[in-house]
Amino acid sequence: MASLELYTKGASVWIPDPDAVWVSALLLQDFSPAEKHLLLQVSNGKEVLYPVGSSSELPPLGNPDILEGENDLTALSFLHEPAVLHNLRIRFLDYNSIYTYCGIVLVAINPYDQLPIYGEEVIDAYSGQDIDDMEPHIFSVAEEAYRTMTREEKNQSIIISGESGSGKTVSAKFTMRYFAVVGGAAQQTSVEEKVLASNPIMESIGNAKTTRNDNSSRFGKYIEISFGRKGDIIGAHMRTYLLEKSRVVFQASAERNYHIFYQLCASRELPEMRSFKLDAPERFRYTSQGGHIQIPGADDLSDLERTRNAFSILGVQSDQQIELFRILAALLHLGNVNIQASGRSSDRSYIDTNDRSLAIFSKLLGVEGPQMAHWMCHRRLAVRGEMLVKPMSGQEAVDARDAVAKHIYGQLFAWTVQRLNSALRTQRGPSKTLIGVLDIYGFETFDRNSFEQFCINYANEKLQQQFNRHVFHLEQEEYIREALAWSRIEFNDNQQCISLIEAQLGLFDLLDEECRMPRGSDESWVQKLYDQHLTNNPHPYFQKPRMSNSAFIILHFADIVQYECSGFLDKNRDTVFEELINILKASQSEVVAELFQQQESKASVANGSIRSGRKTTREHKLTVGFQFRQSLQMLMDTLNSTTPHYVRCIKPNDLKEPFMFDPRRTVQQLRACGVLETVRISAAGYPSRWTYEEFFSRYSLLIRGPCSSREAEIWCRQALPELIPDPDQYCFGKTKVFLRAGQVALLERLRAERLRVAAGVIQSRVRGWLERLRYTRIRWAAVTIQRVCRGALARRLALMLRYTRAALVIQKTYRMAVVRQLFLSIRRAATTIQAFTRGTLARRGYRLLLAERAAVLLQANVRRWLARRAYRRVRAAVIFMQCCVRRRAARRELLKLKTEARSVERYRELNKGMEVKLMQLQMKADQEARESVALRKTLHAEREAAAAELEALRGVIQKLESEKQEKPQIGPVITEKEVEERRKSMEKAAQEILQLTQAFKALQKEKDMYYQQREELSARLLEQEKAEEEGVHQAVSQASAALKAELDEERRKYQGLLREFTRLEQRYDNLREMSLLTERTKGHRRTDSTQSLSLEPFSPTLTPLSLSPLPSAFPSPEEVRRASVTSPSFERRASVWSCDIPLDQLMEKLDVAKDPAVKMSGEDLVHAYDAVRVSNKILEKQLLNQRSQQEEELEALRRQLSKAISASSAAAGQTDLLELLQARDQECGRLRKELRELKEVKNSTSLRRLLTQVLPSAFNPDTVTSCPSQPKTARATGLLECRKRDETKLIKNLITDLRGDSALSLPSGLPARILFLCVRHADCSGERSQARSLCSAAVTAMKAALKKHSSEVNMTALWLKNACLLHDLLTQHSPKQTLDSGELVPLTTDVSDLIRALNDLSIQAYQQLISITEKCLQNIITPALLESETIQGLSGSAKKLVTSRKRAGLDSRKVGGDTPSMASMLRELEALHSAMSHQDLHLTHMEQAFHQLTYHISTTALNKLFLRKDMCCWSRGLQIRFNVSLLEEWLRSRGLQTGVAVATLEPLIQAVQLLQAEKTTNRDAQALVETCTALSSQQIVKILTLYTPQSDLEERVTLNFIRTVQDLLKDRSDGHPPQLLMDVRRVFPVTFPYVPPPILHTEQLVIPDSLKISFLHRT
Length: 1659
Known about the structure:
This protein is 57% helix and 8% strand. The protein is α+β, with helices and mostly antiparallel strands. The strands form nine sheets. Strands 5-6-22-7-16-10-11 form a seven-stranded mixed beta sheet, with helices on both faces. It has a four-stranded antiparallel beta sheet with strand order 1-2-3-4. Strand 18 (551-555) and strand 19 form a beta hairpin.
């Protein structure tokens, strides 16, 4: 129990609860030993009193909040049951983590859901990693076992246990899958495939549905996977234990029989299954007793197909599979055999001779039906030397029938396991090491427990004993390694319970003795148990039930179990009558006879005994219990000889609901599987273990005085006694400080108190400083206010004096202004009166003079106006008539146009001549505009004249009226008649003017309507044209994008095949070297350096289409395992040849001759060598056929495109605009459809270039064929001549013997330029064969040079440059490229296949360059990018509260050596960049290379980040972001930031930004979702889940925040894959753009003498 000092107010404790088992509560007051109760507040807010009798009865303390969700239970400060249960619940429900460490045990909780955490990318992430750095996973246990096996060369075992439905079978399956991938990825053999194929077979014949599990294993199995010296799987062996044969004949309610029976019934309609006469499972007794026929989500038909495929992989022929299914179908019919009772007391039984089920059973097994019917109902007895036949009752006959069925199924199960072991047996000698995977049943207790549960629980007792002793042994080793003075730890040893079962006169011994008795029964056996273990020698672990005399109770380590003795003897005997076995031995079926002939040859029966009337020996009656004890003892001996690894599977609930946690069921299983025992053993010792540096970094503040981290151990030894007075609570080791349970919490309390006191001191100082600062500011403010107030008063007095003086001045000035204003107004009034009087007199005289002159002018103007009015009236009438006529004609024309516009034909005609009509409408509108302007001007002039005249007349009238009033006698008198006529004429003129105005407005309205119609038509036409153009552009862009994506995918697949082909060639070279070594052992002979050219025939167009069935030769062991696992894997395809055709006939058929140079001693090596040569020949033929088909398809497509485009161009001149657009749209659609069929085209050609090549005006197919045959007659100069006999020397000096230093000193691309000049000279001289042979030899030599320098970056970059340059030179001088150039002379030699071969060689060189750099970076990425502390001291101040303890039994990490840093990574990248820059490779090549490398770096680092909880913190995120910025800066400094290299780092950048961002409010959640666009939803939630505070200043991410982020992520529709980890194996396709090099001449080359090619002549 922890120290009493920790039971203070606010402390967290655990109290029992009937529903939740344990609930958390808070102490509301400090505890004192005198008190008898604790005042607690539970989680629901209720206060309770917890009784405490003594200090030992105190409730267990809770761990600090920062330890919630720890991935190792032994890292908890307080180790007890509630802490373990709470931590598992938090990880399972809140973090969705189903795996948790508990020391050396991996606790796996069944999620009842599919989780994306078992892909190949996860296997790559765990392969070769330290499990202490990674998140708990089943792969981590497998990796630990594999790595321990390879390094220490010791056998390993993985023990997977748990009750039914907890996920044992799935865990074992994933474990074997991990071994198959890691141990077989480099060799690509079929052994690992066979190991995985055994799973579906054993599941179908050994698994069944129970009430607790839909796929429960009803047997135990131990699979030994054998490994070779290189760590590759070479074989496997399986052992099975205690098959539940009783399930064949009986199933409880809601359960099923074995899956294979239902699979057969589901496939009864298949042709090969119809002869079995199967029916629905409901019609058979053996499959319908449970009532549950179907399993939700399962497909029996597809499961049977998978089972048959697995049989085929393991070498079981189809006829044998059918025989196997025939026997199983016969068992179903056997269960339907009707046995009827007869006789007076029903002591006899018989089977009807016409029983259909018996007839089908006999026919399927090939046995005699009457004999089976007779011996099922009779038995043979030996009485005093005579043989008697006794009839059996109906029940006895049914039991005999069921016994036969169980026996047949047991023999069939054993035969299947034997065949699996034969197929999995190693073929390459004895294995060096092995790993065993034990998938065995867990502890079982039901309402009624029988013999099967007794054996299962006995096996679990043995396994628990082995587990306890192993855990104790590991603890002891840890203490001895640290040189601790330790005392023995007491633990619950269950040896007494095991002795009760297996010792002399134990339960098994008495059971076997009772089975040997003639009249032995279950009742007599249980009575012997009572007498022996209750009366004579009472045993503490044996009890008798109170209410039963036919049962007994055993106190197991996990629970108290009551066993019913009914059926124990029969199940232990497992008896079947000899007469029935003899009938089966005489079966016409070979498989049935084989089953029971093997049984006869054995000394003992594997699955039971045969009972006959004759006396039998003792070994023929070995009981099931005895056999089980023997096999279990062998298993324990095997486990004790290996290093065990434990996986405990937990079933969280009985409802099989996903992520539902039942604490009562979980605690029951934790107690049963030994997890709590591990915790108890750890808690009994020193569970908390700290290195001296970690302890000093955390608790150095508790001791005052100067201290240095260099003397951490000395400081710890001096300071710890002051902190913990009791010396028994701690201990000092060599490298660690060991603390007992609860002491870390005590130290944390002292540390928190010290920090609280320090915080108080800091607060007092800060508050004093703040108060002093406040006083200073107040005093300064008071002085300032006084100064301002005094200044304001003085300024106010001065202002008052100024105002007084100003008032006097204003009064004086105002009085003067008033007097002056009065004077001026009087003077102004007098002047005005005088002026008006004089003006009146002058105007009166002037009016008299004007009256006389006006009368004369008025007469003249009136006469003139009358004449002009008559003329205008006549002209206006004429114009009005013209307007009316024209308006009528225009209306008719408008109606006609509207009628025509409504018809579709007219609309098409308008569209056809739209441009002409637009011009006509424009001209018509312009003419009407001019007419309207003229009319407007005329109307305006008339209006102005009329207005002027009216004004003149009004003026005259007014003057006349005034004169009339003054002088009535002056002027002529106008009569009323004239006035009336004038009025009428004026009204008429006004009416005419109004009519003209209305007509003008009508014409203007029609004009506007025409304008509007024209604009609408124009706008509609423009919109239609724009829509058509956008549609065509969008369709073409989509087609181009789709075509580009398809070409990229095809290019990626093609380049993947090239990598596969390179691997195949390497195997071939290894086999050839082996053959040469074998030959040299007989007689050493030195071969020429050019022998590789003669041994390997050139095949420039080889493309890997299939894989050789041969394994790779001698791969490197542990050093390259990580690189081999992460390399791209390819599917294993079927072999090209059939197994029935001999290899010699296949070689003769393919014209492959035996190589006389190859002389090998081993027949297997000869066969492998010939097989590789045959596969190469087949690959070459297939590739040639494929290339010819591609060229034919390309030419046909070009002709179709030419015809289509010529037809569309001819029809464009005859159709209108709409038809042309429609025709082009259809043509584009057809072209897009045809372009999708260009998947096999290796060189990407744009659509525009392809159309340009097939247009008649630019390219004529007739001229293309004629161009190569008409080369230019001008002889090319500036070349190099190479004689035929010097070709081998040229290739040798220029390529083969070129060494590193001399090669790097050469100008870039010099070998390619020299070779090209030699090829051109041979071509110009007419030596086409010499040109081709020289090119072929050059390509072959370059390939050999690449293989020779497969690990050198500089040499690989050199040959990449030469391959690309030679490819570009040959392409530049090809006939197709020289058509548009008048300076280049085309090659007459057909080198198209060599150009393709050079392109493939360039791709291989590029892939080799990337592979070299990735291998160098593989072990650097994680330490440099994630672990290196570039910012010194950042993580030193942010230590975690309690670091994860190393699991018991594992050595600490080795410290020492150079740790990779960012400088190391940048050095490797700089080496690649320097090599490529030195060879003047194109910028596109460098961008693609670094795009691939940065993607590899980013994905590798990000995957490690997802699996390492210690990396998910703020300080580490800052370190990683700084390291990534160094990488970005390096890329920018090299000019690579414009490509996509920097973009591939975005997911990693966003991940570290997520670690650094605030994670508290809803706004923070929204910002995270909007920022992290490159991460998937699962990745964001995973980082938030793994985020762990490394200091007290940080806060843990709350569950509410994580749920808020999940809700926001549901609305985001991203295209990210559902997997958590990114695909590290993704390879981006590389493209080499064609860059025409400058025209090459000999004068431009400077050939050094070191090349020794002076035999070349310049021309």
